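#dry-run=false #mode=assembly
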Amino acid sequence: MTTSTSFPLAVHDLTVVYRDKPAIQDVDVNIPAGKLTAIIGPNGAGKSTFLKAVLDLLPRVAGTVEVFGKPYRQQRQLVGYVPQRASVDWDFPTTALDVVTMGTYGKLGWVKRPGKAEHDLARQCLEQVGMADFSSRQISQLSGGQQQRVFLARALAQDAEVYFMDEPFVGVDALTERAIITLLQDLRQRGKTVVCVHHDLDSAPEYFDWVMLLNVRLIAAGPFDSTFTAGNLRKTYGGAMKAAIDHFAHFEQSKG
Amino acid sequence: MEIVITGILISVACALLGTFLILRKMAMMSDAISHAILPGLVAGYFFAKGPDLFAGFLGALVAALVTVTLVEALKNTQRVGGESAIGIVFPAMFALGTFLVARFFENVHLDTDAVLFGNIEFVAFDRLFIGDVDFGPQSYYVAGALCLINLLFITVFYKELKLATFDAGLAATLGFSPFFIHYALMALVSVTSVGAFTSVGAVLVVALMIVPAAAAYLLTDKLPMMIGLAAGIGALSAVLGYGLALAIDSSVAGAIVSVAGAFFFAAMLFSPSHGLIAKARRIERQRVQIGLEALLVHLLNHEGEEGEAHESEMLHLSSELRWLPQFAQQIVGVAANRGLVMQLHGHLILTDNGRRQGQQLMVH
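#status=ok
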């Protein structure tokens, strides 16, 4: 049996409660290194809650979270986070470059200001997501897709080993979607681990190589092809969610 | 003169914090704090057995932090939303304060006028003496110290304040406690409120925190600029407000805040980026632009057709494009002015320039 040391993320018995109802319950999962993992499940399944609880943004009732074998709090530097785009106020008076530079703050620590090195890094990251020309643009004047790419560039600037992304593909244009995929594959090539909350069952098989099916409890987790099965999807979405099953049948056919 | 300098220092101290209150959408929190510090002031008075600046600050600080904690706790029940939580906590604290005053300090000079409106007019009478030497009004030192502390705070923790305000989630994952930053800011708001409160009173201190910063937010899209503008507008309001109060022989604090309000109103109307007038003009410009494009495309479509003459009649235009006659007049006027169309016997024909632009539009 492998020890949890080798895992970028090892979650043990994680439970989070909203009022009296568990939002996620007894989730036990080890995410392997160098993989693109999707967290998939119906609305209200606790996908975002899982990410936030892992990142200590929500109080957990029970459970432990380890990043490369140590408690998360000691390993913040290794973790990058891309929140949902709608979670911040894009009217905030600042520029794209400044937002990306925020990714470098963690390594700077308290009080120390970002300097030339940090701004250069931020500019490079903007370039990687195809936003070099927008660095001095006011963030309120960016399109939704461009804002999402700024968020990704900011995560790159964190220079982390594990990235957590909350629905990066939601409400973006085709250009941005391609940019994100390229970026994810690039991260994987460099041995980084990415965990994405993902909504779209259609695109999931194409983008990800590992999957975690969640509906309050963990239904299944494993390599995409052997885990993303009709049976598991039915358990995740319940019998009522016929669309998911139909979709799956379609997916099976196209695979076969 | 001493009144003006005190006013400037207090306005700047307030505006510096106000910028972040506005960006954190917490304007009402300063209202809550400025009222809720009353029981703290009374407690300070009680423990120091008399009016004592330091005890007052300390009491107010504790009262403010209690208020903020209660508001946060109420919000977390998820049954009472943000603004409602504030609405429950601060009247309770204020009521406790008035209750304590009435019960235990009936004979004390803590009159409601001073609490509500302050008495900046009298700053010159409260002087700092060391031995026999007069070091000027006490308010200089209080307001100056507040200014300095607030400036130091937002300079030293600029990066952390910005991050925690824009994206508290990221701030937390990067190890910058948004909790600490929130309470530090609230602590300074409360201390500043106490300092400002003796001069301008509990009600108007809120205005000094919020109004200049809100005006600045309408004028710029850069955070450092917003902070500078807020401080500038605050200071200018103090100067002009004092002048106004002298001229019409009225309350100085009231005049300062009225001037700040006038600045905000002006920014709301005339700001080149976010002002109502700029917005209206932008919409008007777009309306005309779209009208022009529709006109050019329409004329181009029917150019050389049999019905061309008919299609280009003014009357027909307004019914075909569903334009009001005045709007059609306006668009045709603009088009003629720009040399895109010509009028010939009541008909419109495209000029070469107009045809070229119309063709470009058709391609897109």
